Structures are given as structure tokens and as C-alpha cells.
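We include the entry.

. . .
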Amino acid sequence: MFRCSMPRNLQAIEMTFPRSNSARVVGSEAKRIRVVEESSEKNEEQKYDLDAVVVSRDSSTKIMSAEDVSKFTDLNRAEVEQILHVPFHCT
């Protein structure tokens, strides 16, 4: 349902939009989860430790390992190394 309102100029308004979030796990992370599911009991609650990145595009969200980014998207993976020098003087 959409509600139309006409607030005064410069009056703050707040609008909320309900949104359901879901993501598809693809690539090697999906294979790893499938192995965990097959090896565990079906009645127990399952929790997964993911080492992955989340990629959202055109209202679809995918979870994949960093190595699979170039396979499932048109993005390229790069590593950035940074060193921070913090001077410290003790008196």
C-alpha cells in the first residue's frame, strides 16, 4: 500500500520500505556448504563460517569466495598492500 502525503517545505519526513534480503551462494563456497550439509545430521540447526565476498548487482545478491569473483562477475580481483607509519615519541 502506498500513502501520499504533502509535508511543508523543509519538513523532515521518514519513509520505510519493507525489503526481504536473500542471497545466492555460488562457486566454491556453495560446494563447501553442500559438503557440510551432507556430513551433518538433518535435524540440527546449521551454521556456516564463510570466507566470502558479497556482490550485489541489478537487485540480485551473490555470495562467493574471492577467487570466484572473476568467474561469476565482470569484476577483477586485486590485492592491495598498505603500510602505515605512525611516529611515536616517548618522553
Summary: The helical segments are 28-39, 69-72. The radius of gyration is 22 Å.
